[in-house]
Design brief:
The chain is mainly α. It is built from 13 helices and four strands. InterPro entries: Luc7-rel.
């Protein structure tokens, strides 16, 4: 990208579509279905994996930094739920990646020589130490590039200790199988990006993998997915509280559910008519474990049942009255 193009992109990101009065450009809004909502939230896999061996190419929807700026400005004044669309987009992508990982594991099982569970556990230990070394080296290189020399040196010291542990694990693994079999490259599938890792990969190969754009890109995608899920949950809760404060209906529904639960606890074989109590708003049928009470039960039968369980009925009626009395002041206050 030329310096001029970079400058235009920076202005778009800062000022949005209206930065130079271009009315043609303003015809498409960030709310348009043609606009990639994942891009607005800086979480589109097409952007994150660009330039890797799993480059997805150009996204089918519109990507524009100016539209992202428009969204960020508007989001300060109004709530949008684009996180839900973006989360679904990323979840679908992660599901595809996980399926590829499982398929790769099955191919390894079919192609590699079968080994005992004990030997497999020893090989797994070598793989784990390989992974730890690769991650430490990648992180040390990153810190060194940022100028954090002391922290990078500390990580390199950990790498040396881990190499000693790896050498011991390799010796244990080597002694558990024939020399010819040990020389065969045992592969493992990376759980993050589904790439193949070798048991005998050197440190440089491991550092290139764990510090590579592809592996880090998949980590970023998974982290962004978790953030989007959290944002969706928080916005849903915020919306629920807002609606509850505006209408107050949720409070009545919660009370109804609580009363129903407490009435079921005493197992009263009786039917309460909704017209007799405005809190319930519907007929509530409560029966014993061995009874099936018909909702069309006649009045005489009701009186018979009440007489046999009068004390339980009085306790329940008193409980309902207390709940109703506690709610009435809240209703008058809201009015």
């Amino acid at each position: 990208m030329s310096a001029h193009a970079q400058m235009r992109a920076m202005l778009d990101q800062l000022m949005g579509t209206g930065r130079d009065g271009d009315t043609m450009r303003q015809r498409i809004k960030f709310t348009d279905d043609r606009v990639c909502k994942s891009h607005l939230l800086d979480s589109c896999p097409h952007d994150i994996l660009s330039g890797t061996r799993m480059d997805l190419g150009e996204c089918m929807k519109v990507h524009d930094l100016a539209l992202r700026a428009d969204y960020e400005i508007a989001a300060k004044k109004e709530e949008y739920f684009f996180e839900l669309d973006a989360a679904e987009h990323l979840q679908s992508f992660i599901n595809d990646c996980d399926r590829r990982t499982e398929m790769a594991k099955k191919r390894l099982v079919e192609t590699q020589d079968e080994i005992s569970a004990e030997v497999a556990a020893k090989a797994e230990r070598v793989h784990e130490l390989n992974e730890e070394i690769g991650k430490l080296l990648a992180r040390a290189e990153q810190l060194g590039g940022e100028g954090n020399v002391d922290e990078a040196q500390q990580l390199l010291e950990k790498v040396e200790k881990t190499r000693i542990s790896k050498k011991e694990a390799e010796d244990v693994y080597r002694n558990s199988m024939p020399a010819s079999s040990f020389q065969q490259q045992k592969l493992r599938v990376c759980e993050v990006c589904s790439a193949y890792l070798g048991l005998h990969d050197n440190d440089r190969r491991l550092a290139d993998h764990f510090g590579g754009k592809l592996h880090l890109g998949f980590i970023e995608i998974r982290e962004k997915l978790e953030k989007l899920r959290k944002a969706v949950t928080e916005k849903q809760e915020k919306l629920r509280v807002k609606r509850q404060n505006e209408s107050g209906s949720d409070g009545d529904q919660d009370l109804e559910a609580e009363i129903g639960t407490e009435m079921e606890a005493v197992h009263l074989p009786i039917i309460l008519d909704a017209t007799a109590h405005p809190v319930l708003g519907k007929k509530v049928e409560i029966g014993t474990e061995n009874e099936d009470i018909d909702t069309r039960i006649d009045t005489a039968h009701i009186h018979t049942l009440i007489s046999t369980r009068e004390r339980d009925l009085q306790e329940t009626a008193h409980l309902i009255q207390e709940k109703w009395s506690a709610l009435c002041p809240k209703r008058r206050t809201k009015k």
